[in-house]
Fold this protein.
Amino acid sequence: MTRDGSKARGPVLDNEILTIEEVAAYLRLTPQTIYKWAQEKRIPAAKLGKEWRFRRSIVDRWLDEQILSSESGFEHLKKEPTDLPPALRPGAKT
């Protein structure tokens, strides 16, 4: 226990099991979103009785996959800059 009476938390473990509320706080989303995604199998989760549980290491891996597969994150770097005047576009004759 800590001075304020709360339980002392040790180092975060890769196999730590999280609740919907904890995953929501971790990903900065609402618990309703995490619940919906778990039901739709959009996020890896296990239903134990009536409760959903998540393994932190798997959530981290899933998040990495979402970031890497996201077109919105880096796609703009691959496109030609069409908003430039023709004279300034790559390959323009000067």
Q: What stands out?
A: The chain has a mean pLDDT of 81. The beta strands are 17-18, 46-48, 51-55. The chain is about 40% helix and 10% strand.
